[in-house]
User: Which sequence fits this backbone?
């Protein structure tokens, strides 16, 4: 079991995953969760912290506190994405983002797509230094990716457990998807909803998919990647039908992917290098000069 948890992976994969995660944290602040800064405009009595916020305990957020977290986290996440000071910057980013999420989820609504990302932020500082493209394998990095993978799959499995806990089989046989389509459905969803019984079948399919998601760990690598591709296609369908993206979860799920093979900077340099190369002249194929005509052939004249 310990060998499975610490299965070594290339350091280049850890470096790529780290860069992606920290860049997403910066993007999350300005694209997905900028509304957190407005939460503190309401009276403090409406702040009901999550259990972890009550245990620590954390102060009631104020505009000054949340603003300071926002700017510090934005700058430090971008610095952490470079791979420098992985432990110092990593732990700091995790602590700040953790508080950012507590503030976000302590006013009545708790999203369940952040678990994998938070585990990744907590585990990455333990992976140590890693450079892009480095094929050297690391068990510490393997552990960081593995616990992130476990958190990703737990998100699916525990979602199914919550459905049974609060809705039972009525979740599968009810009008859950129909209600979601009415609230936030797209034109594609409206077309799908017209097919008799299709939404009920889809609800049973979602439950089966979530309950069986841990099987991904038992599959060979090729089939595991194919299954992860199916996971992404499921979320693509949710975006296309009910506009729910699960973006943090999708970022954490790249822990399954051999990211060391994705080298956008190297690819860009190669493209630029090819464009910058001067064309090689071909003397034999050059057209004759307009003034001199075609050059005579070299060699003895033919009688």
Assistant:
């Amino acid at each position: 079991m310990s060998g499975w948890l610490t299965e070594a992976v290339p350091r280049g994969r850890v470096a790529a995953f780290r860069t992606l995660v920290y860049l997403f944290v910066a993007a999350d602040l300005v694209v997905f969760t900028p509304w957190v800064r407005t939460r503190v405009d309401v009276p403090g009595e409406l702040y009901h912290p999550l259990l972890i916020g009550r245990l620590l305990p954390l102060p009631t957020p104020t505009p000054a506190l949340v603003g300071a977290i926002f700017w510090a986290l934005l700058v430090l996440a971008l610095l952490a994405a470079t791979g420098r000071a992985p432990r110092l910057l990593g732990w700091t980013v995790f602590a700040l983002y953790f508080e950012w999420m507590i503030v976000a989820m302590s006013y009545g609504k708790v999203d369940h797509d952040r678990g994998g990302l938070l585990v990744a932020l907590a585990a990455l500082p333990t992976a140590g230094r890693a450079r892009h493209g480095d094929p050297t394998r690391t068990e510490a990095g393997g552990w960081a990716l593995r616990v992130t993978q476990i958190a990703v799959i737990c998100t699916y499995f525990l979602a199914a457990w919550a459905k049974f806990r609060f809705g039972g089989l009525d979740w599968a046989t009810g009008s859950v998807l129909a209600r979601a389509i009415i609230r936030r459905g797209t034109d594609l969803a409206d077309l799908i909803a017209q097919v008799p019984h299709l939404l009920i079948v889809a609800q049973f399919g979602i439950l089966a998919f979530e309950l069986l998601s841990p099987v991904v760990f038992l599959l060979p690598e090729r089939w595991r990647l194919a299954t992860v591709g199916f996971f992404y296609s499921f979320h693509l369908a949710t975006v296309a039908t009910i506009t729910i993206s699960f973006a943090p979860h999708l970022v954490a799920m790249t822990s399954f992917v051999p990211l060391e093979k994705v080298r956008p900077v190297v690819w860009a340099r190669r493209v630029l290098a090819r464009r910058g190369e001067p064309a090689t002249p071909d003397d034999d194929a050059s057209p004759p000069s307009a003034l001199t005509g075609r050059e005579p052939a070299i060699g003895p004249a033919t009688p």
About this structure: The mean pLDDT is 89. The CA atoms of residues 112 and 155 lie 7 Å apart. The longest strand covers residues 9-10.
